[in-house]
Amino acid sequence: MSTKKRKNIGWTLREFMVKIAVMVITIGIGLWCGWIDSYSAFYIAVLVQAVNNLYDSSAFFGGYTRFVTVFQIIAFLGALGSAVLAVVHFTNGGSVVDSRNFVIGIAIALSIPILHFGIEVYSLVRHNRY
Amino acid sequence: MIIGIWLIAIVCSIVIIGEIKYRYFDKKEIERGDKSFSRKWTESVDVDMDELSMEYIDNDFVASQALAMRGSWRLAQSQVMGVKTFSQLRQEEYSKKL
Predict the structure, then answer these.
(1) Contact at CB, B13 and A115, closer than 8 angstroms
(2) Are B15 and A122 in contact (CB < 8 Å)?
(3) Rg of chain B in Å (alpha carbons)
(4) Is the pTM of this model over 0.80?
(5) Closest listed residue to residue A71, CA positions, set A82, A59, A81
(6) Which side of chain A, N or C, has fewer Cβ within a 10 Å radius?
C-alpha cells in the first residue's frame, strides 16, 4: 500500500460555486426540456453534459483521497451510462429511452458531481476554510 | 416544478452527506493528525526536567519603561541595555551629581 499522502480538491469556495452553478444551469435546462418539451432536446443536453462530466471526472482519478476518487468514479460511470442512453435515443429504436423514468434516472446520474462538489463546499464552510 | 424538486433533493442530500462526512470522517482525521503531532512533539523534547542543566546567565535587560523614565538616549536609538551597564552608568551619573 502506498504511503504517499493523497490530496483533496484544492479549489476555492468561489471555484466550487462557479462550477456548481454552471452544472445546475446545464442539467436544469436539460431536465426542463425533457420534462415539458421534447426528448430530443433533453438528450442533446445530456450528451453535452455527459461528455463534460467524463472529462471532469477523469482528472480526479489519480492521487486524490478515497472520498474524491469514489465519488468521481461513480460520476464517471453515470456520465458514461447517460451518454450511451443519449446515443441510443438518436438511433432507429431510440424511442425505448423516451420515458420520464429515464429522464429522472439520467438527471440523477449527471447530478453526482454537483452532489460531490456541494459536499466539498459544505465541508469548507463547516471548517471555516472559505 | 420538477427543477424545484430536483434542487431541493440535491441540497438535502448535500447537507445530510456533508454533515455525516464532517462528523464521522473529517473530525476523526483531525484528531488523528493532532495525536501524531503531539507524539512527534514529545519525542523532540527532553521530558525529564531533572536532566535539564540550564546555566544562569546574567544577561537581563533593563525594561524599556525604566529607560523611558530616565529619558535615555539609548532608548531613542532603539538600543537595549543590560542591567550591569545600566547600574554602572547610573552610578557614574550619581557620582557626577555629588
Answers:
(1) yes
(2) yes
(3) 31
(4) no
(5) A59
(6) N
